[in-house]
Design a protein that fits this description.
alpha+beta; Sortase, Chain: A; 2 domains; nine-stranded mixed beta sheet; three-stranded antiparallel beta sheet; 6 helices; 24% helix
């Protein structure tokens, strides 16, 4: 017997009611999860769909969080209360002077020079350009004078107590190394602050020439080599170890009794202050 068209069976109506009820329940569950940060976002962390949102400035201030871009941490660096008249020294003493090196409580407090032609000139001449077996503090022309190279190497003699780097070996003592972290470079217009991360014996290869640290890939290789060269008698700070984005200052002097060895103290740039 055939059913007449134009209407829905009882079974069909029941099915539609059940489907509608399920849709309502599902929507309710989704709304609850969304309100409680359960759908990929978090009301507490400010994240949505895995993308971190910028913190609200007013809310951050109430919570004690500084969101200012000007907060570089430089105010925490103890810049020394001293000065160095670079321009005056260039004019009155020696045009090869271009910076000043200062390491607190070491006696290392001297101008930095660079001869335009002779890389060994200041091993036998002092800062006034006079012949002197103790030499001066100097860099070689393989480095610029801007301290922007990946590695800037500064040399000094420790032949006698009058040698400018006579006390550089103080950093071989772990206690001294850990309690004297800062090295300062004065230029015409700013003070550069460096923090020591390594002090150790090394070979006598010219770092800038031999390792080619002006290229990031080569600099990365050189940084790995430092860890390999430090050995048991060196000092190292793993927590501030530099990356290829850092700028490194290296102080180099000879190892007494070992003509083919150098003693190195290395530090990375951590801040600068206008003069």
């Amino acid at each position: 017997m055939r059913r007449r068209g134009g209407g829905l069976s009882t079974g069909m109506l029941v099915l539609l009611v059940v489907i509608a009820a399920l849709l309502c329940i599902t929507m309710g569950v989704l709304m609850y999860m969304d309100n409680h940060g359960m759908l990929g976002g978090s009301a507490e962390t400010g994240e949505e769909g895995g993308t971190e949102q910028e913190p609200d400035a007013e809310a951050s201030q109430e919570a004690g969080t500084d969101t200012s871009d000007s907060d570089t941490g430089e105010e925490e660096i103890p810049f020394p209360d001293k000065d160095a008249d670079i321009a005056g020294l260039v004019k009155e003493q020696n045009p090869d002077i271009y910076a000043w090196l200062y390491i607190p409580e070491t006696g290392i407090d001297a101008p930095v020079l660079q001869h335009p032609e002779d890389v060994l000139y200041y091993t036998t001449h002092n800062a006034k350009g006079e012949e002197d077996p103790n030499g001066a503090v100097f860099s070689q022309m393989f480095n610029t004078k801007t301290f922007e190279d990946n590695v800037t190497v500064i040399y000094g003699s420790n032949n006698t107590e009058e040698g400018p780097f006579y006390n550089l070996s103080l950093f071989s003592d772990p206690g001294f190394f850990n309690t004297h972290p800062y090295i300062y470079i004065y230029t015409d217009n700013e003070i550069l602050a460096y923090e020591t991360f390594a002090a150790y014996e090394s070979d006598d290869k010219l770092i800038v020439m031999f390792y080619g640290t002006d290229v990031d890939d080569q600099f990365y290789v050189y940084l790995d080599m430092i860890k390999e060269n430090i050995g048991m008698n060196g000092n190292l700070k793993e927590d501030i170890y530099p990356t290829v984005s850092d700028t490194v200052l290296t102080l180099s002097t000879r190892v007494k009794g070992k003509d083919d060895r150098r003693y190195l103290v290395q530090a990375k740039l951590i801040g600068r202050k206008p003069r």
